[in-house]
Design brief:
The protein has 283 residues and is an alpha/beta fold. The protein has helices at residues 12-21, 37-41, 50-56, 67-74, 97-109, 123-127, 142-149, 164-192, 197-206, 212-222, 232-249, 254-268, 279-282, and strands at residues 3-6, 26-29, 45-46, 59-62, 88-91, 113-116, 119-120, 131-136, 153-160. α8 packs across α10, α8 crosses α11 (232-249) and α11 runs antiparallel to α12. The longest helix is centred in the middle third of the chain and has 29 residues, at 164-192.
């Protein structure tokens, strides 16, 4: 079974690399061809176009930025979409649940099958094969797709039918976003109060609030390292998807509302490509 992997960005490149190292028969494509070079060195076939990669794959994994990019790469409104007939499309990116359900129906109409497998984690977990994948789709496909994505992950969890995996991803990201922004606010207060920030970090790391996320992000704050692991722009996109889901299911999340506003200020201030801890600049 040959796998096409479309999208070799911050997350996609290390994810595809793990598949190549695991011996998966892989063909890759990326809009910027240079990003595919390292995959070619690992044994993957590098396609010149997305259509070429799709034609070569039995399974087509998409790890792309948003709904519009997925539609464009799959040529959803054009004749290229029919080339997916007979293939399994696995969406590992983050899109809205409503969009994902619509894509599943569109693929079904052309004789293709669809599975969601979004992941929890950012660049470092992707590099370390420590992502958590949430897989949703037809019961007969979920085990095979779970096995395929396993080399990228520390855990793979089946969560039901489409679009439950993307809804699960957004619920998990609600905790992640509010946790990290809460940490940044805590750091901001400690700095403004004139506390020794190294000692502040030691207290947090020693206490019950410590986590892998807090340890990594706190270290970045202490070093004033705003290099992106999960960019403020991408996190704002996620926050907007969460807000959209809240409206769809009729719930109010006040903390996420504040987080969305703070992220929007950060991006408007020119920090979209910096790590999400760049909300400190807006504060």
């Amino acid at each position: 079974m040959r796998t096409a992997f479309l999208g070799l960005g911050t997350m996609g490149r290390p994810m595809a690399s793990h598949l190549a190292r695991a011996g998966v028969d892989l063909v890759v494509w990326n809009r910027s061809p240079a990003a595919a070079t390292a995959l070619g060195e690992l044994g993957a076939t590098v396609a010149d176009t997305a259509a070429e990669a799709i034609a070569a794959g039995d399974v087509v994994i998409v790890m792309l930025a948003d709904n519009g990019v997925v539609d464009a790469v799959l040529d959803r409104d054009g004749p290229g979409f029919a080339a997916l007939t007979g293939r399994v499309v696995v969406n590992m990116g983050t899109t809205s649940p409503a969009y994902s359900l619509g894509l599943a129906r569109a693929l079904d109409a052309v004789g293709a099958r669809y599975v969601e497998a979004p992941v929890s984690g950012s660049r470092v977990p992707a590099e370390q094969a420590q992502l958590v994948a949430m897989v949703a789709g037809p019961a007969d496909l979920v085990p095979a797709v779970s096995g395929l994505v396993a080399p990228m992950c520390r855990a793979v969890v089946a969560v039901g039918e489409v679009p439950q995996a993307l809804a699960m991803k957004l619920a998990v990201n609600t905790f992640l976003i509010t946790q990290v922004l809460g940490l940044v606010e805590s750091f901001h207060l400690a700095r403004a109060a004139g506390l020794d920030l190294a000692v502040f970090g030691s207290v947090l790391d020693a206490g019950p609030m410590a986590s892998a996320v807090s340890t990594i992000k706190l270290d970045k704050l202490l070093r004033e390292d705003f290099a992106s692991q999960a960019s403020a722009g991408d996190v704002l996109y996620n926050a907007r998807l969460i807000d959209e889901l809240c409206a769809a299911v009729g719930v109010e999340l006040p903390l996420m509302g504040e987080a969305l506003g703070l992220l929007a200020r950060t991006v408007a201030g020119g920090h979209a490509e910096e790590d999400m801890i760049a909300v400190l600049r807006a504060l």
